[in-house]
Amino acid sequence: MIRLDDTDRDILRALQEDATLSAGEIGRRLGLSQPAAWRRVKRLYDDGAIRGQRLDLDHEALGFGVTVFLGVKLATKGRVSLEDFERAVRAIPEVQLVHHVLGLYDYRLRVVARDLADFERILRRRVMTLPGVGEVEANVLLSEERRPGPL
Amino acid sequence: MIRLDDTDRDILRALQEDATLSAGEIGRRLGLSQPAAWRRVKRLYDDGAIRGQRLDLDHEALGFGVTVFLGVKLATKGRVSLEDFERAVRAIPEVQLVHHVLGLYDYRLRVVARDLADFERILRRRVMTLPGVGEVEANVLLSEERRPGPL
DNA sequence: CTTGAAAAGAACTGCCT
DNA sequence: AGGCAGTTCTTTTCAAG
Questions:
Q1: Do A63 and B1 touch (CB under 8 A)?
Q2: Which of B 1-40 have CB under 7 A of nucleic chain C?
Q3: What residue stretches are annotated with the HTH asnC-type domain (chains A, B) (predicted)?
Q4: pTM
């Protein structure tokens, strides 16, 4: 487990807001020189605390106005069945996230669609026909808020 | 709604894999000059297709080995109650994501905890005491797979 | 759209406290 | 650890076709 001091935590908090901050800008904010900030950021990457950076796309602006969370319960849960299900799920382009979970459901999926008609097509043609699929529960996203998290 | 051509889509796909790609590298892969690729990326930002870049942190390596998705049903759902609930949820540091949803539940939360004992504390002390909270359902994350999405 | 080039800024290195 | 000075590389902008 990676140990961080307060300065590392400050850096992660700043980068969570905007991952494109330069080492110089981070140093300015925290009272560090550019190389000192740069070395810390590099160490956070090298140690594996930071895995990388990902794009934050505006799917609504890109024509995908509907986001739905699906809870999926499998009818049969052998090891083969899990692998079959996961392979088939990966073939659905509208699936952004596949969570294998423990609890009332076996998988949670994040799915985007152009509109509700488009979502209905995905649900009927792609999701309900997945191998081993049992019960499916859906939640339509109204609004999303990201929080800084516990760091 | 933002219109993209095939090249824009290729750029977004490449940047989804690695958001740190330089304009020169993108151009090399797609057969564009560095300035041409740079202008396109800038336009994707300016038009709002790309909102920004976010850190991909390894929460497990940082000591938060447990991730749980909570479905929350409110007991009373007036407008005041939604605002009260949301304000109180924002005060829980372990909550990373707050989704207001339509369906069987009213909210979906993504929560991280150091371990299951820590999660139990958060659930009992912070979540179950939220204003207006009714039923709560939990799914513990076993594994997560990100997919490129439908672009 | 291209190439070429210049200016600005960020990343990286070595050495010192 | 952190700072300073300097080098290298990328980004960003412009000119011209």
A1: yes
A2: 31-36, 39-40
A3: 4-65
A4: 0.95
